[in-house]
Amino acid sequence: MTAIRPKNGERLSPGDLRRKVLFASAETNGQTRRQLMSALGKLGAAARKLKLTKRERKKIARKASKVAAVKRSKAALARSKLESPAPHLSAPEPRGVA
């Protein structure tokens, strides 16, 4: 069992304390962790929305989209290099002897 240790900084709100206890007591299965991380992500998104302007959020999203597109194209290129070449390009067909 993991103990919850106090840390320097602001006092935890009831919601923060609840999430901390849930995360510490969560089973090791992926689904429970996934639900907890999803809840944390939603809270972070709401806080980021209040902190940043619409223009700043749009700029960040545009940059992330471009990075993701480059990553997808690199992955596709790597996959295409791994695939075997077309049969008509590999070896010439043997010619019949007359």
Explained architecture:
This protein is an all-alpha fold and 98 residues long. The protein has a domain at 14-77. Helix content is 68%, strand content 0%. The chain has helices spanning 14-25, 30-51, 54-82, 87-90. The radius of gyration is 26 Å and the shape is elongated. The N and C termini lie far apart (83 Å). The relative contact order is 0.05.
Key attributes of the depicted protein:
0% strand; mainly alpha; 4 helices; 98 residues
In total, the number of strands is: 0
3D shape: elongated
Tally the helices: 4
Fraction of residues in β-strands: under 5%
Radius of gyration: 26 Å
What is the arithmetic mean of pLDDT? 79
Task: Identify low-pLDDT runs.
Answer: none
The major β-sheet equals: none
Helix content: 55-70%
Query: Structural class, from secondary structure content?
Result: mainly alpha
Order of helices and strands: HHHH
Termini distance? 83 Å
How would you summarize what this structure contains?
The chain is mainly alpha-helical and 98 residues long. The protein has helices at residues 14-25, 30-51, 54-82, 87-90.
